[in-house]
Specification:
12 strands; ten-stranded mixed beta sheet; 10 helices; two-stranded antiparallel ribbon; alpha/beta
């Protein structure tokens, strides 16, 4: 799928070198079709890295996508230049008049704080409420998934005795096929990097939620509402091959207690190149979300969207 992004977004050159089909606004304007409109609420401090990871995965289907980047106005990140934010991001107040086929809410490095202690929590609640009527399907990732499950359904998160860190096997064996996992192997692998978890017993108490996938080692992975308008993913399928290595080396250099990421370095040797076992899973997950939960179900006229659609 060609991704429609600004010509000078840093991700543009990176993705073009990888032979990902990116399309400038100038070229897209000449095509007489309606692109899927996707908004990414990027809560990660590494804005450019996260943009590139997500845009890469959104590129893998045959339709055109138009992407808006959203940031919070109640908290200004310190790890990205103001120039980048001003050039490519808009606040919720600037975008809330729009309607979108799909939305992605990323993770954030605040999981060990109570939700109510997060600087932008009130604004995030407003955005998540807005998404129910202005977005057809919202994909919540890692802390974004925990925040969404807590806000929409009151599901708590729990501290883990040690960080869930590494690449873990998951399954999705159900009597009725789940569209999100169409084409998946019986066992597939996903990166996790978190200090907290949501638990299956809390999910199963909510009759309007479906537990779609879990892991014996890393617990709940995928949850959705009955229509797929809210999907919650607790891992990081978007991670690059070296992302966990970077997190591990960062924490080691700070003298923090951090275990080796599991199932990641060959022979648990950090000098070895990590074994990538989740790339095809990531592409297929995002492709299925776009195809089955966004493209096939969203109204052609987005003005028809509402929380009852």
């Amino acid at each position: 799928m060609p991704i429609r992004i600004p010509d000078n977004l840093p991700a543009y050159d990176t993705l073009e070198k990888e032979l990902v089909f990116v399309m400038s606004h100038t070229r897209a304007f000449r095509q007489d079709i309606r692109p899927l409109k996707i908004v990414i609420l990027n809560l990660m401090p590494t804005k450019i890295v996260t943009e590139t990871q997500l845009l890469r995965l959104l590129s893998n289907t045959p339709l055109q996508i138009e992407v808006d980047l959203m940031m919070t106005s109640s908290y200004r990140p310190k790890n990205v230049s103001e120039e980048h934010l001003v050039s490519f991001y808009q606040t919720f107040d600037e975008l809330k008049k729009n309607k979108y086929d799909g939305m992605i809410i990323t993770g954030a490095p605040v999981e060990q704080m109570a939700f109510e202690e997060v600087a932008y929590w009130d604004e995030l609640k407003e955005i998540m409420n807005w998404s129910k009527s202005n977005v057809y399907s919202t994909l919540h990732i890692c802390w974004g998934a925990q925040a969404g499950l807590y806000h929409h359904y009151g599901i708590p998160k729990y501290d883990l005795p040690e960080k869930m860190f590494g690449i873990f096997p998951h399954s999705h064996k159900w009597n009725k096929p789940v569209k999100l996992f169409r084409g998946f192997d019986d066992v597939f692998y996903v990166p996790h990097s978190r200090h907290t978890e949501v638990r299956r017993e809390d999910i199963l108490k909510v009759s309007t939620l479906r537990l779609l996938s879990e892991s014996l080692e890393s617990g709940v992975f995928a949850v959705s509402d009955m229509k797929g308008r809210k999907i919650f993913i607790t891992g990081h399928p978007e991670y690059d091959p070296d992302t966990l290595r970077g997190e591990y080396c960062r924490d080691v250099s700070k003298g923090l207690h951090i275990g080796m990421p599991r199932n990641y370095f060959p022979g648990d040797d950090p000098s070895e190149r990590p074994m990538v076992s989740w790339r095809s899973t990531a592409y297929l997950l995002f492709s299925n979300w776009l195809n089955y939960y966004v493209y096939q179900d969203t109204p052609f006229d987005l003005e028809e969207l509402s929380d009852r659609y």
